[in-house]
């Protein structure tokens, strides 16, 4: 029974760790390999024992696909490939390939240096893992092997994020990863063509939400900025994903950021443009600063990945240097000590080291100041602590820092909500939809909504649970020209609307299907043909000559069997398709004629029917 | 993009401003797009609201939405980044829904729509996220009229419903037995019904005639004089419930007239004012006037255009004067991303039960706003 099987891996019902196993037409693909940020033990990794039971991962899996660089989608990749063991190809887009190792290294440092974890993947493992990566372009069909092909589609969400179509023959699955259906300032909206996959797999984490508009989110950010600088405070927004290397290495200068330039580029640039316009419109005078060193790297990466951003950004870039702002200047350490209001964008993003931590320590004690955290902070970092409400922090050397400054947590991440999911399903037109990371009971309404609107089946497996979808793949069969020609020569031209029965032999060899005439098949196989022929005698009362009986038979059958080819041959016999009817005189009784009805095994049904028809007798001659 | 017209600016800056600094006029502002426009906004507790679609040719959704966490928490608001509504429960209605009431202390809802010959009773599931139709209440109405609905909440809840004065009834929800009926032949059309306490309710007819009814007695409402004496017809609706020492019943006409009454003497309106509305309401069925539960002498009106206007009615007196709103919410107009020629029309609005200056408003373009306005007069 042809089927597609999907199993979300990982323990428990927790969201935050994407890793899905798909079996399609005998191929096994792993989609994403994420880490759960909330756990510090093995629960943060997906449960790979499910597949390792089947043997070596490299033998079992045909490929691994990573949708984007967020750690809950790629965080477990080095662990998986280097510690569990996988040597096959890992597919991802180019920006993902560039940014992934930076984020992984950053996370590794926090886990090992800050939290002192053992049994974590090493820097070398990250490098070795990335050697297995094959980068893909958007809308480019990539042949993984003779039968398996994949294609990436634009997903929005973050730079380089993609949705993937996995195809084997006529069966296909589309995996969305995280995506966004509304464009933002630097990224476009997700898009897919009407590819009609058997199955669309999508996250349901945000499926039951209705998102606040982008304008209102931005308004909230601007309002907080404005209020703080108006009060004479210092406002400080930090950027997630900054990797500060070597700040503790003696003798080296403080690091130039190795900030995830592109990631920072996206959100940072978005908010910089926002602030710049706001400052201009409101005629504000408070200075805005941006971490030094960011600009060169940022521009370099930016140029690499321009096709991944949206129209507006590309236009702006052409006109001027990305970071040439009127109101935003490069930051100097000394500025942190200046009195008066200011806004500073600094790195690294989770407050675990470097410039951002330095500034934080200077400003934390003043309640007029504010820190805006624009994203998730990993457990163990100062960022995470203050977002959990902690107000007294133990720093190095047992120093206690009292945090009086206001802490604001803002979410700028772009996910599809209920409306977005419906839009995407409408675009792709799948036969089935599968939602991961939701509790089935809490999603009954969404399931009904999808099923009703699109007339598809909607599945919601729990982690570790396998969903099996029966499919009806179409198998292409080549028909030999000779056979086709012969069928057409059989008499009446085929009526295009009516199905026509033809006889042939199906030869299956090396995943190849051919339909040939029986004679050809026998020849190829070196077999002799045997024919089964049935003959039946029907006695009719008719005093005329047998030739006339034959004519009567012909007329009768012609009028009754309008759908069949009835012929009267020159030798007096009548044929119906391939069935032969001959009239002969009865050896003893001249008033009786004997009809010999002869047919081959293929025409058994028609033959039997004809016989019973003839047994009923012929109509009286008019 | 930000480089927009100045109408976009007025989203968060008051216009015109004399000085360099523009004051933000909203404390909070959230804007959402529902999958279908709603004409109802009904609270479940102080954290959840119900909305329902009113399209005539397709299945409409009834949604139970939980307010964004950021709006619900009282402390440390800054640490909660969630600004989104959560769909807690959902159901499908074959009919358009024009009125929806929650039966307090139960998991039941009652809806009214077209055709209007029955009310639908729904149950909000406990162990799943589904809102299911469970029963109907037959009403004797012409199919083209839809009855207004209000709930007498008690151990045995009663459903007050009617499209005309003559068909006004109270039906026991469980037994479906009629426990009260107006028993009059007067077939004036109703525009609003409101339960005031366990025994009394208020009604308002489209003509502006309104009355307070005690269900313990046979039909003898205390009524007002028809407002035809002062104003020129139009269509009216009303709401009782003002807080503070002044009049507690407000009646709103489709030409922008607002009449304030004291329930003790409905025949003597306390004041009759003209609100600055640019035109008579294009759809008077959408007229809505509501009293603020958390502010004294404060009410809001909508149904004329894409705005919601908030008024302080303290020291309104006399007849015929012009008044100015304390605040006007214009969000539905300039956040309309459809670029349609017709501006959206606000279909309904409601006040947050606990946060004094927070309102929710919905419009015909399926937008839903939650906004907390700043009292600029007080700020100055």
Verbal overview:
With 622 residues, chain A is α/β, with parallel strands linked by helices. Chain A is elongated and about 130 Å long. The model of chain A is unreliable at 239-265 (pLDDT under 50). Chain B is mostly beta strands and 380 residues long. Chain B is built from four helices and 29 strands. Mean pLDDT of chain B is 86; it is low at 1-23. Chains A and B meet through strand 12, helix 7, helix 8, strand 20 and helix 13 of A and strand 1 and strand 5 of B. Strand 12 (209-210) of chain A pairs antiparallel with strand 5 of chain B, so a sheet runs across the interface.
The order of strands across the largest sheet of chain B is: 18-19-20-21-25
Rg from alpha-carbon coordinates of chain A: 37 Å
| Number of DSSP E strands of chain B | 29
The fraction of residues in strands of chain A falls at 15-25%
Major β-sheet of chain A, in short?
Answer: 7 strands, mixed
**Structural class of chain A, please?**
alpha/beta
Unreliably modeled segments of chain A: 239-265
Which residues of chain B form runs of ≥5 with pLDDT under 50? Answer: 1-23
Strand content of chain B: 35-45%
Mean pLDDT of chain A: 82
What spatial order of strands do you see in the largest sheet of chain A? 6-5-4-3-2-1-23
Q: Looking at the chains present, what oligomeric state does this protein adopt? A: heterodimer
Task: Give the rounded overall mean pLDDT of chain B.
Answer: 86
The outline of chain A comes out as elongated
User: Percent range for helical residues of chain B?
Assistant: under 10%
The value of Rg of chain B in angstroms is 21 Å
If helices are DSSP runs of H or I spanning 4 or more residues, what is the number of helices of chain B?
A: 4
Percent in helix of chain A: 25-40%
Number of strands of chain A: 31
Distance between the termini of chain A: 59 Å
Indicate the structural class of chain B.
mainly beta
InterPro entries (chain B): WD40/YVTN_repeat-like_dom_sf, WD40_repeat_dom_sf, WD40_rpt, Wdr73
GO molecular function (chain B): protein-macromolecule adaptor activity
Protein name (chain B): WD repeat domain 73
Keywords (chain A): Cytoplasm, Hydrolase, Metal-binding, Nucleus, Zinc
């Amino acid at each position: 029974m042809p089927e597609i099987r999907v199993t979300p891996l990982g323990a428990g019902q927790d969201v935050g760790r994407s890793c899905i196993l798909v079996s399609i037409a005998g191929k096994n693909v792993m989609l994403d390999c994420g880490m759960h940020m909330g756990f510090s033990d093995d629960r943060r990794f997906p449960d790979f024992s499910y597949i390792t039971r089947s043997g070596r991962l490299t033998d079992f899996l045909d490929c691994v696909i990573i949708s984007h660089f967020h750690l809950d989608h790629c965080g477990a990749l080095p662990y998986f490939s280097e510690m569990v063991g996988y040597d096959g190809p890992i597919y991802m887009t180019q920006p993902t390939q560039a940014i992934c190792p930076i984020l992984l290294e950053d996370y590794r440092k926090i886990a090992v240096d800050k939290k002192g974890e053992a049994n974590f993947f090493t820097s070398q493992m990250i490098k070795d893992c990335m050697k297995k990566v094959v980068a893909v372009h958007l809308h480019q069909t990539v042949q993984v092997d003779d039968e398996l092909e994949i294609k990436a589609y634009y997903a929005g969400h973050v730079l380089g994020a993609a949705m993937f179509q996995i195809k084997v023959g006529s069966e296909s699955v589309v995996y969305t990863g995280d995506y966004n259906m509304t464009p933002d300032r630097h990224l476009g909206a997700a898009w897919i063509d009407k590819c009609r996959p058997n199955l669309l797999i999508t996250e349901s984490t945000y499926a039951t939400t209705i998102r606040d508009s982008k304008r209102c989110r931005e308004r909230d950010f601007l309002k907080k900025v404005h209020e703080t600088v108006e009060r004479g405070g210092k406002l400080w927004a930090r950027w997630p994903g900054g990797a500060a290397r070597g700040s503790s290495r003696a003798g080296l200068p403080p690091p130039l950021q190795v900030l995830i330039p592109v990631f920072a580029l996206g959100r940072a640039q978005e908010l910089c443009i926002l602030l710049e316009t706001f400052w201009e419109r409101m005629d504000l005078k408070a200075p805005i600063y941006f971490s030094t060193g960011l600009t060169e790297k940022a521009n370099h990466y930016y140029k690499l990945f321009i096709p991944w951003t949206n129209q507006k950004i590309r236009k702006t870039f052409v006109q001027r240097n990305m970071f040439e702002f009127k109101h935003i200047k490069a930051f100097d350490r000394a500025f942190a000590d200046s009195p008066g209001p200011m806004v500073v964008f600094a790195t690294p993003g989770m407050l675990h080291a470097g410039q951002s931590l330095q500034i934080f320590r200077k400003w934390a004690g003043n309640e007029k100041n504010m820190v805006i955290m624009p994203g998730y902070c990993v457990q163990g970092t100062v960022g995470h602590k203050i977002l959990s409400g902690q107000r007294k922090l133990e720093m190095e050397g047992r120093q206690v820092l009292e945090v009086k400054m206001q802490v604001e947590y803002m979410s700028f991440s772009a996910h599809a909500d209920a409306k977005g999911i419906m839009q995407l399903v409408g675009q792709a037109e799948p036969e089935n939809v599968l939602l991961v990371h939701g509790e089935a009971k809490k999603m009954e309404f969404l399931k009904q909504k999808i099923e009703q609107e699109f007339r598809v089946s909607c599945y919601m497996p729990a982690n570790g649970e396998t969903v099996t979808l029966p499919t009806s793949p179409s198998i292409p069969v080549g028909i030999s020209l000779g056979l086709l020609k012969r069928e057409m020569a059989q008499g009446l031209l085929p009526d295009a609307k009516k199905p026509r029965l033809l006889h042939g032999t199906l030869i299956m060899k090396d995943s190849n299907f051919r339909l040939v005439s029986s004679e050809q098949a026998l020849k190829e196989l070196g077999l002799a043909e045997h024919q089964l022929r049935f003959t039946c005698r029907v006695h009719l009362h008719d005093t005329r000559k047998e030739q006339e009986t034959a004519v009567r038979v012909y007329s009768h059958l012609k009028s009754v069997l309008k759908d069949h080819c009835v012929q009267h041959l020159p030798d007096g016999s009548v044929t119906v398709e391939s069935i032969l009817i001959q009239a002969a005189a009865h050896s003893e009784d001249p008033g009786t004629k004997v009809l010999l009805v002869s047919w081959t095994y293929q025409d058994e049904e028609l033959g039997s029917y004809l016989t019973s028809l003839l047994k009923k007798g012929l109509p009286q001659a008019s | 993009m930000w480089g927009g017209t100045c109408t976009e600016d007025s989203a968060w800056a008051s216009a015109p401003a004399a000085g360099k600094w523009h004051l933000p006029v909203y404390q909070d502002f959230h804007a959402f797009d529902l999958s279908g426009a709603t004409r109802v906004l009904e609270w479940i507790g102080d954290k959840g609201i119900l909305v329902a679609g009113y399209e005539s040719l397709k299945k409409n959704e009834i949604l139970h939405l939980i307010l964004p966490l950021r709006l619900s928490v009282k402390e440390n608001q800054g640490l909660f980044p969630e600004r989104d509504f959560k769909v807690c429960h959902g159901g499908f209605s074959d009919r358009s829904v024009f009125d929806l009431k929650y039966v307090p202390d139960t998991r039941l809802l009652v809806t009214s729509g077209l055709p209007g010959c029955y009310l639908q009773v729904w149950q909000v599931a406990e162990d799943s996220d589904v809102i299911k139709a469970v029963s109907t209440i037959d009403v004797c109405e012409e199919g083209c009229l839809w009855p207004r609905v209000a709930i007498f909440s008690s151990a045995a809840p009663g459903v007050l419903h009617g499209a005309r004065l003559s068909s006004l009834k109270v039906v026991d929800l469980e037994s479906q037995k009629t426990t009260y009926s107006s028993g009059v032949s007067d077939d004036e059309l109703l525009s609003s019904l409101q339960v005031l306490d366990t025994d009394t309710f208020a009604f308002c007819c489209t003509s502006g005639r309104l009355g307070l009814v005690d269900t313990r007695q046979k039909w003898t409402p205390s009524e007002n004089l028809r407002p035809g004496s002062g104003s020129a017809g139009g269509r009216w609706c009303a709401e009782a419930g003002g807080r503070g020492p002044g009049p507690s019943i407000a009646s709103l006409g489709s030409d922008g007239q607002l009449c304030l009454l004291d329930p003790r003497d409905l025949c003597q309106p306390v004041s009759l004012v003209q609100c600055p509305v640019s035109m008579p309401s294009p759809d008077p069925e959408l007229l809505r006037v509501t009293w603020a539960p958390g502010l004294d002498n404060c009410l809001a009106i909508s149904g004329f255009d894409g705005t919601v206007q908030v008024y302080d009615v303290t020291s309104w007196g006399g007849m015929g004067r012009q008044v100015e709103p304390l605040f006007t919410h214009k969000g539905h107009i300039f956040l309309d991303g459809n670029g349609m020629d017709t501006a959206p029309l606000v279909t309904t609005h409601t006040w947050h039960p606990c946060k004094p200056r927070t309102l929710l408003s919905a419009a015909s373009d399926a937008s839903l706003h939650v906004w907390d306005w700043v009292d600029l007069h007080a700020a100055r």
